[in-house]
Amino acid sequence: QVQLVESGGGLVQPGGSLRLSCTASGRAFSSYAMGWFRQVLGKEREFVAAISWSGSTTYYTDSVKGRFTISRGNAKNTVALQMNSLKPEDTAVYYCAARHSPIPTMVGADFGSWGQGIQVTVSS
Question: pLDDT digit string (tens) for 13-29?
Answer without folding.
Answer: 999 999 999 998 876 55
